[in-house]
């Protein structure tokens, strides 16, 4: 029996596959076969349900002490408004929240640049403001990179920082800042910012203090398949220990307006291959998310056939990270649109809260 047939057999028997086997699936797996396996796994976990939520983003600043090469969003710490930089606080947050009547929103996702002067106090201020104004809203805020910076600036441990944020009302961490864990690739594209071990430490600590989280992977730039598998393997290992990850979110590198714009974006088939292998390999992370804002709406619906069970949310034109990198301008989907398109694709739309309880 050929190597690939042996791996197919393992997947069919629902056995965990190794890193070497996952690389082999990426390289030699037949896309239709990967699709079939990924679909079987998602059907077993979630039947025909496809999850979404009603969420907005709040991006408090795009000033950043780092200069990741793939980033189209960040401005230098001393950049001015004329140069496209912004600093928002509770006033702007209030303006944003006031647009939404009580009950029309279940989550605010806060992330942005790593601001040179904003430590844990600023994080606490934003989170507690939302909890005071709108206690029913789930606050998913601050990537592991932002948390690491807050801890450093406020001279606290990661655990102390997370505990303070949790006590202020933080509910979970988003999955950003993971990029690709391999140190040689990470150094080239995201030099200087929290290394892989720190990212994983922050999420492990978050899980231990009672905050769940998500995990992303930025792919389709200078990494190869072994780097993607290494990335997912480290997540799988941490998940075995803590069980705190809700969803895995592969993010295809978008190439406009950044320092790696010379790279071509990968094809749609490559996106689908990536979703399918992720669904097969990450047997212990319950949800696989297609973030339509980044991937494109049609592409995200297509991904439902490749193991994806979550479409993220309505977003309502509240994020700039992706449009600045060449993705959808003014991203917003109504609940009706999401539900009818999910149904058109043969799935049942299910509104969820941020920890995937059905609403
Ligand atoms: O870490 C930045 C990525 C991430 C580009 O947890 C880019 O539910 C592609 O993590 N091309 C931040 N990707 C966004 C994020 C996220 C999004 C949606 C939901 C959740 C969640 C988390 O955006 C960064 C980085 O990997 N990113 N620039 C780019 N040019
Ligand atoms: Fe800063 Fe995040 Fe952009 Fe990197 S990806 S430059 S950390 S905003």
TrEMBL record:
Protein residues bound to [4Fe-4S] cluster: 64, 68, 71
Keyword Iron-sulfur among UniProt keywords: yes
Residues of the signal peptide: none
Transmembrane segments: none
Claim: NAD is one of the keywords in the record: no
Binding residues for S-adenosyl-L-methionine: 70, 179
Free-text remark on how the cofactor is bound: Binds 1 [4Fe-4S] cluster. The cluster is coordinated with 3 cysteines and an exchangeable S-adenosyl-L-methionine.
All copies of domain Radical SAM core, residue ranges: 50-286
Superkingdom as given in the UniProt entry: Bacteria
Pfam family, one: Radical_SAM
GO molecular function: 4 iron, 4 sulfur cluster binding; 7,8-didemethyl-8-hydroxy-5-deazariboflavin synthase activity; metal ion binding; transferase activity, transferring alkyl or aryl (other than methyl) groups
Keywords: 4Fe-4S, Iron, Iron-sulfur, Metal-binding, S-adenosyl-L-methionine
Essential cofactor(s): [4Fe-4S] cluster
A GO biological process held by the record: menaquinone biosynthetic process
Classification via SUPFAM superfamilies: Radical SAM enzymes
NCBIfam families: CofH family radical SAM protein (TIGR00423), mena_SCO4494 (TIGR03700)
Protein name in the entry: Radical SAM domain protein
Species lineage: Bacteria, Pseudomonadati, Lentisphaerota, Lentisphaeria, Lentisphaerales
């Amino acid at each position: 029996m050929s190597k690939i047939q042996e791996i197919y057999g393992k997947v069919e028997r629902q056995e965990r596959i190794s890193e070497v086997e996952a690389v082999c699936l990426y390289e030699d797996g037949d896309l239709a076969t990967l699709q079939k396996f990924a679909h079987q796994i998602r059907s077993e976990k979630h039947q025909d349900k496809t999850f979404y939520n009603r969420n907005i983003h709040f991006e408090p600043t795009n000033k950043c002490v780092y200069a990741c090469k793939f980033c189209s969003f960040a401005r230098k710490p001393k950049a001015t408004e004329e140069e496209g930089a912004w600093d928002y606080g509770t006033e702007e947050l209030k303006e944003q929240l006031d647009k939404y009547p009580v009950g029309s929103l279940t989550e605010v996702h806060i992330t942005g640049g790593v601001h040179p002067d904003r430590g844990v106090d600023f994080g606490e201020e934003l989170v507690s403001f939302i909890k005071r104004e709108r206690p029913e809203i789930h606050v998913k805020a601050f990537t592991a990179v932002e948390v690491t910076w807050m801890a450093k600036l406020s001279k606290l441990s990661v655990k102390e920082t997370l505990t303070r944020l949790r006590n202020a009302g933080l509910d979970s961490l988003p999955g950003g800042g993971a990029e690709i864990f391999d140190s040689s690739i990470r150094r080239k594209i995201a030099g200087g910012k929290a290394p892989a071990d720190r990212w994983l430490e922050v999420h492990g600590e978050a899980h231990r203090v009672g905050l769940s989280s998500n995990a992303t992977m930025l792919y389709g730039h200078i990494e190869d398949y072994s780097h993607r598998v290494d990335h997912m393997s480290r997540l799988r290992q941490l998940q075995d220990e803590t069980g705190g990850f809700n969803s895995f979110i592969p993010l295809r590198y978008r190439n406009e307006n950044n320092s790696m714009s010379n790279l071509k974006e990968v094809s749609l088939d490559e996106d689908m291959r990536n979703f399918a292998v992720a669904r097969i390999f990450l047997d212990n992370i319950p949800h696989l998310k297609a973030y339509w804002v980044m991937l494109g709406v049609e592409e995200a619906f297509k991904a439902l056939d490749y193991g994806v069970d979550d479409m993220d949310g309505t977003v309502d034109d509240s994020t700039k990270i992706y449009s600045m990198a060449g993705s959808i301008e003014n991203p917003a989907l109504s609940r009706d649109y999401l539900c009818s398109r999910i149904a058109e694709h043969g799935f049942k739309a299910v509104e969820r809260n941020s920890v995937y309880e059905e609403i």
